[in-house]
């Protein structure tokens, strides 16, 4: 009998939340349009060159509906309208908006490689607040704004398309001094790409190279929508919303709509489904099976817990394991209400999503293939050929790769197409040939992130979002049963229910709470509450005042929060900006009020971390070393996890030192016990490195501290002015879960 190949299944998940306001018809954010031109079309069209590679694409209906709206109805978003506008007619507010938003791209791979775009970024400033931008907006010419309009939209077109389309090649070579016609060319190409994207998926699916699957229509976390108490299974100590969320009928509706739209667009219902965020529970299986879906997928840790096994305690432990039970399908559910389920290999999936972008493409592909061969050799057959499922986001990862990941993907597909012993497969095809032979005793309720639902429920902001949703839904449900519902404008009741289903989407709570942040936090918050307000407006109900109040309650948040790990060189110099690029930022001149803008001693505070250490950098308009040779002192006052004070000092010649002492109370006297001398350097800036262990701060513990400036033994400044800098000690999986827009 010939050696059975190791079957390799890629599932690329393509998703965007619903950005359209159903009352105004306006698209608030541009990411459907921009990811369509950079990722959605190119991710499937690249397969034309690799006919031996088979894959699965999960297309979320809320994404498909928005793409259709752009193409068929000429929908526009606020960013597109701002891009179209003649720079000579821009208002000051529009200029500020543009300078704030039009650098939303990976700076290393999408901005810095183009000299004109980088020059505009440098002119604006890399950590510029809206207030700071307003002060410099007049230094930008009309040509500056027109070049910015072109570059922002141009870099969001895939590099392969830019290299092949002579119109775009010309613009890249021209680089600056773009004309209005140049700008229109970019918009024309954007529309061309969007208009053929869905057709391209149909074409490649029709020839049998890809399988198309779906998710519930507006991407809700179905287990929480079905029963919010399920979150306490993985997190028994979780603080859940004051109201019980229990709407299995909405789960059914979201699945029904998804299956119907998929069948309408692609000619047949989907065989498979990626439940939003890989979130599953026993309770959602009947709704999925009831609408004809044959298989679902989720994360390997959900399988591990379902089998009663312990999840690897750290990333390194799992990295070295071959879990033989992982590489096979299982049944979940009972009788007619059962589906097959496959589980993603999180190491392989997350390597593509978060690791390989920093490696040379050839080395990354060699590593990936070597890991597959290791699985093939060690996992064994155990009654059926092995299936390795690689499941990840199909859009956001590529911003972190040079050339939108084109070199990596081409090398990878080329290797997989010819590698003996490996065979790529559509998941549905594999399951038809090799159906599950085992049934899981239970399906652990959890998601792809840490096999729980902590990202979407349990925090103050997330719980408030659920409460407002439940109150709005209850109001609409009562109204729908009343005679008054017959008196409103035709179609408004259906629109109101659509707004509820949109508000059930996972993305709103992704950005609420402590786990994730982006430059769009306020936009997401405003849009979420607008969707809920629309329910009242469409039905003529009185609007609750709470829906006009921001849900975000994170207090004195910095202008920017940390977005990745960093390990800076502690030398007291800001010679290499990029070592602090992932850091959080407190811009003192914009956070402390009008008086502080002119008189504050500190200008900026950067903070960040790697797994072992907290790092702080304090900037000053003056010469720090000279100041500290006098009577100026810097202190970090820690409130948590234990009260402690770190003193920074410089001697009379050069260099600096520091001590840290435990305090009797948060603002009290120190007890005199010197713990250790942290790493510190003072020159043009103050840089400090403090081991988390020294602070007795374990993974996920909160660290809170102020930066204090003293002169002559007296405190003259304390930053941030409205509350301490607060951060959570990163876990080994920090970079894995902390991706952002």
Summarize the structure in words.
The protein is an alpha/beta fold and 741 residues long. It has four domains: 224 residues, Glycoside hydrolase 38, N terminal domain (7-stranded beta/alpha barrel), CATH 3.20.110; 153 residues, no CATH class; 89 residues, immunoglobulin/albumin-binding domain-like, CATH 1.20.1430.10; 161 residues. Strands 13, 14, 15, 16, 19, 20 and 21 form a seven-stranded antiparallel beta sheet that branches. Strands 1, 2, 3, 8 and 9 form a five-stranded parallel beta sheet that branches. The relative contact order is 0.10.
Number of strands: 21
Overall geometry comes to: globular
Query: For the CA atoms, what is the radius of gyration?
Result: 27 Å
CATH architecture of the largest domain, by name, is Alpha-Beta Barrel
Low-confidence stretches: 591-599, 665-674
What layout of secondary structure does this protein have?
Elements: E1 6-14, H1 31-45, E2 55-59, H2 61-73, H3 78-84, H4 92-101, H5 107-111, H6 115-124, H7 130-136, H8 142-155, H9 159-164, H10 166-174, H11 180-206, E3 210-213, H12 222-226, H13 231-234, H14 248-266, E4 272-273, H15 285-290, E5 295-299, H16 300-306, H17 315-319, E6 330-334, E7 337-344, H18 346-355, H19 361-379, E8 387-393, H20 406-418, E9 422-424, H21 427-433, H22 460-481, H23 492-503, H24 507-511, H25 521-539, E10 584-587, H26 588-591, H27 594-599, E11 602-609, E12 613-620, H28 624-629, E13 632-640, E14 644-649, E15 657-663, E16 670-676, E17 679-682, E18 686-691, E19 702-711, E20 714-719, E21 725-728, H29 734-737
Parallel strand pairs: 1-2, 1-8, 1-9, 2-3, 4-5, 5-7
Antiparallel strand pairs: 6-7, 10-11, 11-12, 12-18, 13-14, 13-19, 14-15, 15-16, 17-18, 19-20, 19-21
């Amino acid at each position: 009998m010939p050696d059975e190949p190791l079957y390799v299944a890629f599932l690329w998940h393509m998703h965007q939340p619903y950005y359209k306001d159903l009352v105004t018809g306006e698209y608030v954010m541009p990411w459907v349009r921009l990811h369509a031109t950079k990722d959605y079309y190119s991710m499937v069209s690249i397969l034309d060159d690799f006919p031996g590679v088979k894959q699965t694409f999960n297309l979320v209906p809320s994404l498909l509906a928005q793409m259709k709206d752009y193409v068929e109805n000429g929908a526009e978003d606020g960013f597109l309208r701002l891009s179209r506008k003649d720079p000579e007619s821009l208002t000051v507010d529009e200029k500020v908006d543009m300078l704030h938003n039009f650098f939303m791209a990976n700076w290393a791979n999408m901005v810095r490689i183009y000299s004109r775009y980088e020059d505009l970024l440098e002119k604006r400033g890399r950590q510029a607040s809206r207030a700071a931008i307003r002060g410099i907006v007049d230094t930008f010419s009309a040509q500056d704004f027109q070049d910015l309009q072109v570059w922002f939209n141009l870099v969001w077109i895939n590099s392969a398309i830019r290299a092949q389309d002579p119109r775009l090649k010309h613009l890249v070579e021209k680089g600056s001094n773009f004309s209005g016609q140049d700008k229109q060319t970019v918009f024309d190409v954007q529309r061309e790409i969007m208009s053929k994207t869905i057709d391209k998926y149909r074409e490649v699916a029709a020839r049998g190279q890809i399988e198309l699957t779906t998710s519930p229509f507006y991407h809700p976390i179905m287990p929480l929508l079905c029963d919010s108490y399920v979150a306490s299974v993985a997190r028994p100590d979780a603080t859940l919303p004051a109201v019980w969320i229990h709407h299995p009928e909405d789960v059914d509706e979201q699945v029904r709509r998804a299956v119907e739209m998929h069948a309408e667009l692609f000619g047949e219902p989907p065989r498979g489904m990626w439940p939003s965020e890989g979130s599953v529970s026993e309770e959602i299986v009947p709704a999925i099976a009831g609408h004809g879906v044959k298989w679902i997928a989720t994360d390997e840790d959900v399988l591990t817990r379902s089998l009663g096994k312990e999840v690897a305690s750290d990333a390194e432990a799992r990295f070295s394991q071959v879990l033989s039970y992982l590489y096979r399908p299982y049944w979940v559910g009972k009788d007619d209400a059962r589906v097959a389920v496959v589980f993603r290999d999180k190491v392989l999936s997350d390597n593509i999503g978060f690791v390989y972008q920093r490696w040379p493409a050839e080395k990354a592909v060699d590593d990936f293939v070597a890991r597959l061969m290791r699985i093939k050799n060690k996992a064994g057959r155990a009654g059926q050929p092995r299936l390795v499922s690689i499941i990840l986001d199909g859009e956001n990862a590529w911003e972190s790769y040079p050339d939108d990941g084109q070199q990596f993907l081409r090398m990878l597909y080329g290797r997989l197409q010819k590698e003996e012993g490996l065979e790529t497969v559509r998941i549905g095809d594999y399951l038809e040939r090799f159906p599950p032979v085992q049934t899981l005793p239970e399906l652990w309720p959890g998601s792809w992130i840490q096999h729980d639902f902590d990202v979407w429920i349990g925090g103050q902001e997330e719980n408030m979002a659920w409460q407002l949703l439940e109150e709005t839904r209850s109001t609409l449900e009562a109204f729908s049963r009343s005679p008054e519902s017959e008196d409103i404008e035709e179609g408004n009741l259906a629109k109101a229910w659509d707004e509820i289903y949109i508000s059930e989407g996972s993305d709103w709570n992704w950005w609420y709470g402590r786990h994730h942040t982006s430059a769009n936090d306020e936009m997401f918050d405003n849009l979420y509450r607008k969707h809920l307000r629309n329910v009242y407006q469409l039905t003529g109900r009185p609007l609750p005042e709470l829906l006009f109040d921001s849900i975000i309650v994170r207090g004195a948040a910095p202008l920017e929060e940390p977005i990745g790990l960093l390990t800076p060189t502690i030398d007291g110099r800001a010679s290499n900006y990029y070592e602090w690029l992932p850091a959080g930022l407190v811009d003192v001149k914009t956070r402390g009020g009008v008086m502080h803008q002119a008189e504050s001693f500190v200008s900026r505070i950067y903070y960040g971390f790697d797994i072992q250490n907290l790092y702080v950098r304090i900037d000053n308009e003056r010469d720090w070393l000279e100041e500290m040779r006098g009577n100026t002192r810097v202190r970090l006052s820690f409130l948590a996890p234990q009260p402690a004070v770190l003193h920074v000092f410089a001697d009379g010649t050069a260099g600096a030192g520091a001590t840290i002492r435990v305090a009797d109370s948060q603002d009290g006297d120190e007890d005199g016990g010197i713990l250790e001398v942290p790493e510190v350097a003072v020159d043009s800036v103050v840089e400090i490195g403090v081991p988390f262990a020294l602070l007795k701060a374990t993974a996920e513990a909160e660290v809170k501290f102020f930066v204090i400036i003293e002169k002559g033994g007296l405190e003259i400044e304390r930053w941030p002015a409205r509350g301490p800098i607060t951060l959570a000690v990163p876990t080994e999986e920090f970079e894995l879960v902390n991706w952002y827009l």
